[in-house]
Amino acid sequence: MMSSKPNTGEDDDDDDVDFDFFIEEIGTKINERAFRVLKRISGRRVSERNVENMNDPAELIRALVDAAVITNYNLGYLIRMLRTAENNELANRVEEYQNQNQRTRTEKKSIGK
After folding, report:
1. pLDDT for 45-76, tens place per residue?
2. Which positions ≥6 away from 94 have C-beta within 8 Å?
3. How distant, in Å, are the alpha carbons of 19, 38, 55 from that of 90?
4. pLDDT of residue 111
5. What CA–CA distance (Å, rounded) separates 37 from 34?
6. Whose CA is closest to 47, among 59, 34, 32, 31?
7. Among 55, 47, 94, which Cα is nearest to 71's?
8. How far apart are CA 70 and CA 88, in angstroms?
9. 75: exposed, middle or buried (Cβ count in 10 Å: 0-12, 13-18, 19+)
10. What are phi and psi of 95, to 5 degrees?
């Protein structure tokens, strides 16, 4: 869907908001066993002390975003973590989101945004 708005950076803001909601959605779908695996894996990327105190998967994902380990356009680390935790269905969902973002960015570049 093309936006009729001039390119004021608002599209980027919309992308960030969508990403925030997406991260929260993914966090609510991570089960306790997978969360324990994700915490062990990410302890090297985010302060291990902070990871130990996290009780919410979305909080862990947000910490990885804040540390620039994952971004709106590069979710490979999250996908690999989910696959390692044997949560392939959720990993596929994240991969679909990433692929859609890449297609959208390509479309915006091709129309001069």
Report:
1. 888 778 889 999 999 999 999 999 999 889 99
2. 26, 75, 78, 79, 82
3. 15, 13, 19
4. 77
5. 5
6. 59
7. 94
8. 18
9. buried
10. -65, -40
